[in-house]
Design a protein that fits this description.
Elements: E1 2-3, E2 11-17, E3 23-29, E4 32-36, E5 47-54, E6 57-60, E7 65-68, E8 73-77, E9 82-86, E10 90-97, H1 99-105, E11 115-117, H2 122-137, H3 143-172, H4 176-189, H5 198-204, H6 209-217, H7 223-240, H8 249-255, H9 261-272, H10 276-288, E12 294-295, E13 300-301, E14 306-307, E15 313-314, E16 331-332, E17 341-342, E18 346-351, E19 369-371, E20 382-384, E21 395-402, E22 413-414, E23 443-445, E24 449-455, H11 460-463, H12 468-475, H13 478-497, H14 501-511, E25 513-518, E26 525-531, H15 536-547
Antiparallel strand pairs: 1-4, 2-3, 3-10, 4-9, 5-8, 5-10, 6-7, 6-9, 8-11, 12-17, 13-16, 14-15, 18-19, 18-21, 20-23, 21-22, 23-24, 24-26, 25-26
Helix pairs in contact: 2-3, 3-4, 5-6, 7-8, 13-14
Length: 554
């Protein structure tokens, strides 16, 4: 990789590998050159494909070069050397496919040269649309969805590549590749026919049986071997797909043209090293096993005096975010041996602009949200914030890989990631009995809980006046944060669930969990966790009473 001089390098890569061995990579980066420099024809049997999504790019393979426009596709065998030069910031989606999977559908794939397919019309446009959808969603799909898309995509790609190979062959007067393509397509469309034979294939293509055999000889295969391979791959795919869990192994083998279950079992074991039953059980167990996410420890270090960008010395960690000079510390490895830390990906900062004008310190959180540092603000959660400025002005940042309640050492495991947010505006005049109708503080909703956020100073900018940015660090306490969380919880239970004050306080004592959110951001936090399941019966009664125009009492 060669970067452009005088241009800061940045890049974002999102990658995944499918169960069938395809590698999917989404790239967004600054101008640079990506080069395939050490290709080996004997060992590099994979096939690559790239969808160009944004930016100005050129492709070179030593003899040819062409420009790529957004939507264009470039592809070829991995054993060819080439380079992609990006003259501007760019985005690309790249796929690396197992050679066996591609050659099963396109036997002449290894003989192809890198090629270009316009994404502006025809087949290229259809393929570009499919790849764009996959690029946008592959990291959100589960295993079964990926397997379903991948199966269709392999066939789709093969059709597109075959069309390109056909064009290239015709231009060069090489008709064998086009003929082999037609033969493979016929086989693919009739795999389930147990009577499919060399004679039938030759007759369908107006060829002699010898010519069909010769076409496969050119790829190092035989007709019989290719037919068996494709049927086994189809059976393998169905055995791994829980959608077909209701089908017996015999049903699946007969579905793809085998007419002897014992012969199928023997051929399957020869190819995959497992019986069909063992393979199905193994893949089913793997798909059902939940991924155990964890963070590997790296090292810790003793704090040494650090000087921040303003020249202030910090003999202790007395302020979050002080840059650490790596040369001034001693790394202590071998820490937390045998300890596994759960991943809790979340954004520490989610805020709307406060009503106050001028500069506002982004470290202390408040009623407008901000640096809340509550790990429950994660995927699938909803955060309610009251709008105080025209347009709302949403800010998001400070991503954490993991953090415990309290954040006692002054930092979480800081990281970088991309979030997808849905922003919904609830007009105050349209709200009636919604639990968040009258909130003036950050309220988190998860599928199972309500999480109410309290602070030492609920609105420190108003409470502390002109010196608020400094006084909030001096006057915060857990006592005041707990008091604020209690008051908000009492009010929430009384307004959202029509409890009396005595009932609310009793419930708080026996069933509401309070925890320290953080003690590092100036305005300390305590949150209350209320389980939704406690109110199922009560809400049913309240809803029934409202629908009848009456009232209910406890």
């Amino acid at each position: 990789m060669v970067t452009r001089a005088n241009i800061p390098l940045y890049g974002l890569l999102t990658a995944a590998r499918t169960a069938r061995g395809a590698a999917l990579v989404r790239i967004a980066s600054s101008p640079q050159t990506l080069a395939r420099m050490h290709a080996n024809r004997e060992t590099d049997d994979r096939f690559w494909l790239a969808l160009h999504q944004a930016g100005h790019a050129e492709f070179h393979d030593g003899t040819r070069s062409f420009e790529l426009s957004p939507g264009d596709i470039v592809f070829g065998p991995a054993h060819h050397t080439f380079d992609l030069t990006f003259h501007s910031d760019f985005r690309q989606f790249q796929i690396s496919l197992p050679g066996a999977a591609v050659q099963a559908r396109l036997p002449c794939a290894r003989s192809l040269s890198p090629a270009h397919l316009s994404g502006q019309a025809g087949l290229g446009r259809l393929l570009a649309g499919t790849l764009t959808g996959l690029a946008d969603t592959f990291d959100t799909l589960n295993d079964e969805q990926v397997a379903s898309v991948e199966s269709s995509l392999f066939d789709y790609l093969a059709s597109s590549l075959n069309a390109s190979a056909d064009d290239a062959a015709a231009a060069a007067g090489k008709h064998q590749a086009a003929a082999l393509y037609r033969v493979c397509q016929f086989i693919e469309n009739t795999l389930s026919d147990s009577t499919l034979s060399l004679t039938m294939v030759a007759s369908s293509q107006n060829m002699s049986e010898r010519l069909v055999q010769k076409l496969f000889d050119g790829t190092g295969q035989t007709f019989t071997g290719y037919l068996r391979q494709r049927r086994l791959e189809r059976c393998c795919s169905d055995l791994a797909n829980r959608q077909y869990g209701h089908l017996s192994i015999s049903d699946i083998c007969f579905r793809w043209g085998f007419n002897d279950a014992a012969h199928f079992s023997h051929a399957f074991r020869d190819r995959y090293g497992l019986s069909p039953r063992q393979y199905r059980r193994q893949t089913t167990e793997a798909s059902e096993q939940k991924l155990r996410k964890r963070i590997q420890r790296v090292y810790n270090f003793r704090w040494t005096t650090q000087r921040d960008p303003q020249g202030v010395e910090h003999r202790t960690i007395d302020y979050p975010g002080v840059p650490v000079e790596r040369d001034s510390i001693v790394e202590n490895h071998g820490v937390l041996e045998g300890v596994t830390i759960p991943v809790r990906p979340h954004f520490g900062v989610v805020a709307l602009a406060p009503a106050e004008t001028g500069l506002v310190d982004s470290v202390p959180p408040s009623h407008f949200g901000g640096n809340i540092d509550n790990w429950r603000v994660t995927k699938g959660a909803t955060l309610y914030l009251r709008v105080a400025a025209v347009g709302g002005l949403l800010s998001v940042g400070d991503p954490h890989a993991s953090q415990g309640d309290g954040e006692l050492c002054g930092t979480a495991i800081e990281c970088s990631f991309t979030g997808v947010f849905q922003v919904i505006l609830h007009k105050a005049e349209s709200l009636t009995s919604e639990p968040f109708a009258d909130i003036d503080y950050p309220l988190i909703e998860t599928p199972d809980e309500w999480v109410l956020q309290g602070f030492s100073h609920p609105n420190y900018l108003k409470e502390l006046g002109e010196r608020a940015p400094s006084l909030v660090y001096e006057r915060s306490s857990l006592d005041s944060a707990m008091r604020d969380a209690f008051r908000k919880t009492r009010r929430f239970l009384m307004t959202a669930f029509s409890l009396s004050e005595d009932e609310a306080i009793s419930l708080i004592s026996v069933a509401v969990d309070f925890s320290v959110t953080q003690v590092v951001n100036g305005n300390w936090g305590v949150h209350a966790v209320i389980r939704k399941s406690m109110f199922t019966q009560r809400l049913n009664r309240l809803n029934a009473a409202h629908s009848q125009g009456g009232a209910t009492t406890s």
